[in-house]
Amino acid sequence: MTLLIDETHDPKRTSWVESANGHADFPIQNLPLGVFSTGGGAARGGITIGDSVLAFADLVDAGLLSGEAETAARAGAGATLNPLLALGAAPRRALRRRLSALLASDSAERAAVEPLLRNAADATMHLPTAIGDYTDFYVGIHHATNVGKVFRPDNPLLPNYKHVPIGYHGRASSIRPSGAEVRRPNGQTKAPDADAPVFGPSKRLDYELEMGVWISEGNALGQPIPIGAAADHIAGLSLLNDWSARDLQAWEYQPLGPFLAKNFLTTVSPWIVTAEALAPFRVAQPVRPEGDPRPLPYLWDEADQAEGAFAITLEVALSTAAMRERGLAPHRLSRGPATNMYWTAAQIVTHHASNGCNLNPGDLLGTGTISAPSDDGFGSLLEITRGGKAPISLESGETRTFLQDGDEIALSGRASREGYVSIGFGECRGIITPALA
Ligand code: MN
Q1: How far apart are CA 266 and CA 359, in angstroms?
Q2: How far is the CA of 244 from the centre of ligand 1 (A)?
Q3: Side-chain half-sphere of 262: how many Cα atoms within 13 Å?
Q4: Taking 70 as the threshold, does the pLDDT of residue 129 lie above it?
Q5: What percent of the chain has pLDDT over 70?
Q6: What confidence score (pLDDT) does residue 155 get?
Q7: Rounded to the nearest whole angstrom, what is the distance from the C-alpha of residue 207 to the centroid of ligand 1?
Q8: What pairs with residue 205 in β-bridges?
Q9: Dist. CA 262 → ligand 1 center (Å)
Q10: Which residue in 82, 124, 233, 313 is a FRET match for 213, CA 20 to 30 A apart?
Q11: What is the DSSP string of 111-130?
Q12: pLDDT grade for 2, boundaries at 50, 70 and 90
């Protein structure tokens, strides 16, 4: 693995970009990759630090980069980061080290870099890559158990769950960056006691708390990715909200799985927090409970078990239109660790390619809903409200079972570990707007 701790992770390193020091998400130790436009200009690749963004093209034009770092920046200078991700980890890391040095408090080149900074608040964020393919997994074992209980109280997990990472091919065309409108979908539903289905707005609109895994180097069609090499194919992580219409889902999902209940929109946080930035936050994959099967050899790697999980805390907050009008703070729906994944990111990459399926640079994998074992860490309203049977009460006096028009869902994530500066993922939010008539 090429996941190394270096000077870019030094907790003592600060930046002359004052807003970065103590920034909840984007201190100098993070430097996530994204695509943005400013002043009505073209979409360009770059990074964010503190409250600023910095375009790769401007750094190249200013002659501030050379060697592998320049190669990486040129590849990432356009409207999508696919060419940069295709280069793999080494050039990405070289670019990170050079950017960190340029932005560090002791940089001799502050005067050359400072004029290139743009205010992040003035930037429009775009998707970081042209996503060719999107696959959503189901690795949150507590989520799978909670959902399974609704259908099979005595035997919630299907027999394949602990052997094979479950997933389905999602829709890439409807993935949007944070802030995109969440139009309530229309669809076909059938109430359990109804004789016939109806078509109309979903009444059980939900979110799913997930992480997105961005693919860097791909694999050729027919060539699997060995588990020991899988980490090298992961460029980084984002937050991902797999908006879900539960009433459409219940009616359509058999026998082929999720379809229109899921593909009307998926929201991602637009910054790719790189594998390099996440290196200090890698932790052991939780040991499987006694009696669980050991993964088949193609999914088993000691190094992946030792450091294939991430010390990331995930949160979901809800604010209704009434709460925002009254200035009430968002209501926290859940908080829990991202280690509640039965399979690691490397295992889902390897499994996806194990039949020879080719992954491409810039592809996106969703982990599946990540729920903690306890109520305060459930990653969807389906679980929190017991399928709509147990409404939650909000500070505004309102109640919710599923999402109403005007509701805003915001995901957040924070990687932290003793001895290192915490880093975050930025925004992943969306407001529900009424269905089209
Ligand atoms: Mn999902």
Answers
A1: 20
A2: 8
A3: 23
A4: yes
A5: 99
A6: 84
A7: 9
A8: 245
A9: 8
A10: 124
A11: HHHGGG-EEGGGEEEE-SS-
A12: very low
pLDDT in tens, 366-422: 999 999 999 999 999 999 999 999 999 999 999 999 999 999 999 999 999 999 999
State in Å: Cα 427 to ligand 1 middle.
19
Cα 258 to ligand 1 centroid, rounded to whole Å: 9
In this structure, which amino acid lies at residue 119? N
Which pLDDT score, from 0 to 100, does residue 3 have? Answer: 59
Residue by residue, DSSP assigns 188-237 as EE--TT-SS-EEEE-SSEE--EEEEEEE-S---TT----GGGGGGGEEEE
Q: Do 174 and 258 meet the contact criterion of CB atoms below 8 Å apart?
A: no
For residue 22, the one-letter residue type is: G
**Sign of the dihedral through C-alpha 81, 85, 91, 96:** positive
Q: Give the domains, in start order, of the chain with CATH numbers.
A: 7-126 (2.30.30.230), 134-433 (3.90.850.10)
In contact, 240 and 207? CB cutoff 8 Å: no
- CA-to-CA dists, residue 419 to 32, 228, 280, 416, angstroms: 20, 28, 9, 9
Find the 114 Cα to ligand 1 centroid distance in Å: 41
Neighbours of 242 (CB within 10 A): 27
Question: b or e along 140-153 (b: 16 or more beta carbons within 10 Å of the residue's beta carbon)?
Answer: bbbbbbbbebeeee
What confidence tens digit (pLDDT) does each residue in 227-243 have? 999 999 999 999 999 99
pLDDT tens digits along 314-368: 999 999 999 999 999 999 999 999 999 999 999 999 999 999 999 999 999 999 9
Catalytic residue among 9, 143, 233, 352: 143
- 73 versus 151: the higher-pLDDT residue is 73
Task: Determine contact, residues 353/198, Cβ cutoff 8 Å.
Answer: no
